[in-house]
UniProtKB/TrEMBL annotation:
It comes from Lysinibacillus xylanilyticus. Signal peptide: none annotated. InterPro entries: Transpos_ISL3, Transposase_DDE. It comes from the Bacteria. This is Transposase. Residues 5-106 form the Transposase IS204/IS1001/IS1096/IS1165 DDE domain.
Length: 113
């Protein structure tokens, strides 16, 4: 599936390809599989001609161990992220609260806790 914008811009095309390849890396289910896929990804993109892609790869290198641990971990922080997002939305919608008690009351009402 090739879109016009992929043909037009060199950097966008390579960022898109690198992120799609990273999507494959993130689907690993074991430690060895995650390590191999991430190493292959880094080998392919570390010295890429697109500066943006190589910078992303260098950032991944710094956090390589944490990324491997995260890839195959069965735990997710999705519920916590959703709760934090809901709290931020309530704060934004409230245009500020007179005191903290009102904010906490509103949070309890909307989150059910």
């Amino acid at each position: 599936m090739t879109w016009g914008w992929l043909r037009e811009d060199f950097h966008t095309k390579h960022i898109y390809q690198a992120l799609n390849h990273m999507h494959y890396v993130l689907k690993a289910t074991t430690d060895t599989q995650a390590t191999k896929r991430l190493k292959d990804w880094l080998k392919h993109y570390q010295f890429h001609t697109s500066g943006v892609v190589s910078k992303i790869a260098k950032t991944v290198i710094v956090r390589e161990k944490a990324m491997i641990d995260t890839i195959y971990s069965p735990f997710s922080n999705g519920i916590m992220e959703g709760t934090n997002n809901k709290i931020k939305l309530i704060k934004r919608r409230g245009f500020g609260y007179r005191n903290d008690a009102h904010l906490f009351l509103r949070l309890r009402l909307e989150t059910g806790h």
